[in-house]
Amino acid sequence: MSKHGKILVAMSGGIDSTVAALLLHNDGYEVVGITMKTWDYAASGGSKKETGCCNLDSINDARQLAVDMGFAHYIVDIREEFGESVIENFVDEYIAGRTPNPCVLCNTHIKWSALIRRAKQMDCEFIATGHYARVRNEYGRYIISKAADDTKDQSYVLWGLAQENLSMTRFPLGQLKKSEVRTMCLNWGYADLARKSESYEICFIPDNDYRGFLKRRVPALEANLKGGNFLNTEGEVIGEHDGYPFYTIGQRKGLGMAFGKQVFVTDIIAETNSVVLGDDDDLKRSGMIVGKVNLQKYESIIDGMPAVARVRYKDAGTACRLYNQGANIRVKFDEFVRAIAPGQSAVLYEDDDVIGGGIIHSSFML
Fold it and tell me: What is the CATH number of domain 6-194?
């Protein structure tokens, strides 16, 4: 009988999930490994060689570790679920003029659901991943907090996890620095894995060209939308663009034409196929409306509650106040925030703890 119980570990074949599995195994858990096949790179039509968590080499690396350590390993095909939820949402959001965050949607609706379902089928008490984050139970709530390694913290992409899912979740790397994880991997004899490069692209767009992906996914998109208008902030036509889904808030490069000065995409109006361009100051906002809210640390928000809001993955965060607005949260920043993109995740923190998060619906300037 295991010391701590039976745990299902998501294993991508990369260094982080490998060390997570090894730590749990050495700590006395009965580890069961699972690798989820989410996407065929060949289906994306991109030009980059297949890399990342779904290629055959990575799957074999995960299986080999399980063989070495003597625990079971399974491969689960969730390509259909992934395609229906994550990829279709990704395309739909861009067509709606928003900028999606597919990693959040995948974690919330695909990976954790698949893990929890399989864990229950295999009588596993817990699940674990190689994410850099921490989770604890306090006053009956399961709370995610930032990792010890600020440079690798992944709490931002985990705001959507429900309390039931968090109650079963373990993050073995949450207290570790990335350098410590690499050293452990080397010391355990996995030198090649420790030196393995990491991918930061969206998993189903390995060439990092989301515009090309959209064009391949919806062939008529470019032809139907090309020739829309670039507008200035006064609403005057100043040029033509390739179609509003191919631009994002804050973009200044790749606009396809020169304007005699530095300009940025400040708004996208899907209904009229218009892209608004302005100065850097035109990107500044004093607040935002956040919808599809999931709260973790607290059951509800008290009007005027102080927090720190992050509006993108690498955002350092900005102090703010939170207010209830129906099912949404109205966020008022203490100072201006630049380039807030509808469709992206807004994650709200109290010190290192995730209060909750949601999808940015809109931003405003008082």
Answer: 3.40.50.620
